[in-house]
Design brief:
Radius of gyration: 24 Å
Number of helices: 18
Mean pLDDT: 77
Distance between the termini: 13 Å
Low-confidence stretches: 1-20, 223-243
Shape: globular
Order of helices and strands: EHHHHHHHHHEHHHHHHHHH
CATH topology: Growth Hormone, Chain: A
Number of domains: 1
Strand content: under 5%
CATH class: Mainly Alpha
Number of strands: 2
Length: 402
């Protein structure tokens, strides 16, 4: 996006064209969709309806990544590596809030009310979308220079600065957001490796969360259950046990979940330093390698404190992985492809999330070590993919066109 002097204005036909939906509009639609179906979930008459409605919620959540794109396009190059990872603090706050809420609501008035209460913040946030400006980069790329100028003038006013003289000059692209562009020769290798990394990171992230619950429910801490206790449990009547051996979390289980969740912010300072000084690729490959190691350490015979420590570090590492790949994906693609690149990557993320339960709760029941080795192997593949990414985005200005 450039400012030129003595250049002709864009013709009237350009300024009155129908513009494509903006990132902020997509974000609003995704919030409306997610909040609506989340609220409906609390009225599910059967398990099938519950699964279907949560699937619809997932469809809405997939559009939330547009918020990161908006932030990325507003931030200067030197601040992106510092400001974007700080978004993790708000993710952590939401995670801690829902765990604390669950510990109070589920034992008293049930899971349906937990979902209803949890839907309230999303509904309230919908009203804040009218205050979110669209990226000037996006508006210029679609020929909507009037909206771009309005945004830039608003920024200049907030910063007590003055807009430079001249006119915005940028080629208007008629073709934008094509899936084929992601597989163009220039970005083919980058796209394929990013997809592998997104799939692997989400697989590991949700694997850690589900494995935490599985460890707590099955009480797999070494030496925590004696043989006599195991015999007594086996002798309990079938009527008193669920076929899946599920039981209500005790207060100590919720405390363990809170401690391990706090781990998601523990490495944030180091993650920010790594992103800004080592670069996105090297930082991600290191944290992915460490994630693989800590998955294997879960197999060590340890105490409850040791298990919590391993889970704490795993949550910290997988959160750092997500931080870095979010930033890298938003930076590596030009404006004309950024939303599409993030959207397709988010789709691969959902696939990894769907596969994770089969490993954390099914394979782990048959072979605990086998499940951990699979998680670890996937993380190693992601570490290699991150290290060999062809483009480093550290200190690189956002690209406007391909």
């Amino acid at each position: 996006m450039a400012v030129g002097r003595n250049l002709p204005c864009l013709d009237h036909q350009r300024t009155t064209k129908i513009y494509p939906q903006t990132a902020s509009q997509i974000l609003l639609i995704s919030f409306l969709w997610g909040a609506y179906f989340s609220l409906l979930t609390s009225f599910s008459p059967s398990y099938i309806w519950f699964v279907f409605l949560r699937t619809m919620v997932g469809c809405g959540v997939s559009g939330h990544a547009q918020g990161l794109i908006i932030k990325t396009e507003f931030l200067p190059t030197k601040y992106r590596g510092y400001i974007l990872p700080l978004s993790q603090v708000f993710w952590l706050a939401g995670s801690l809030l829902i765990i604390g809420l669950a510990s109070v609501v589920i034992p008293t008035i049930g899971w349906r009310w937990l979902i209803r209460i949890a839907s309230i913040p999303g509904i309230i946030l919908i009203m804040a979308f009218k205050f979110i400006p669209e990226s000037a980069r996006f508006n210029v790329s679609t020929g909507n220079t009037q909206a771009a100028l309005a945004t830039l003038e608003r920024i200049a006013k907030m910063n007590r600065s003055v807009m430079p003289e001249g006119r915005l000059v940028e080629p208007i692209l008629e073709k934008r957001g094509r899936f084929a562009d992601l597989l163009d020769a220039k970005y083919l290798r980058t796209t394929l490796q990013i997809w592998v990394i997104w799939l692997g990171i989400s697989f590991a992230y949700y694997g850690v969360i589900l494995a935490s619950a599985e460890l707590l429910e099955r009480d797999l801490v070494c030496g925590s259950r004696s043989e006599s206790e195991a015999v007594e449990t086996a002798g309990v009547s079938e009527e008193s046990q669920s076929p899946c051996r599920c039981h209500m979390f005790a207060p100590s289980d919720y405390r363990t979940m809170i401690i391990s969740t706090i781990g998601e912010i523990a490495l944030n300072p180091l993650n920010i330093l790594g992103i800004n000084f080592l670069g996105r690729r090297l930082s991600l490959s290191i944290t992915m390698g460490c994630t693989a190691l800590f998955f294997l350490l879960l197999n060590i015979c340890t105490s409850s404190a040791g298990l919590i420590g391993f889970l704490f570090m795993l949550r910290a590492l997988v959160a750092a992985n997500f931080n870095t790949i979010y930033i890298y994906t938003a930076e590596v693609y030009p404006t004309t492809m950024r939303a599409l690149g993030m959207g397709t990557s988010g789709s691969l993320c959902r696939i990894g999330a769907m596969v994770a339960p089969f490993i954390s709760q099914v394979l782990m029941s048959a072979s605990f070590l086998g499940a951990l080795c699979l998680f670890s192997s996937v993380c190693v593949v992601c570490a290699i993919s991150a290290f060999t990414l062809p483009i480093e985005t550290k200190g690189r200005a956002l690209q406007q066109i391909k």
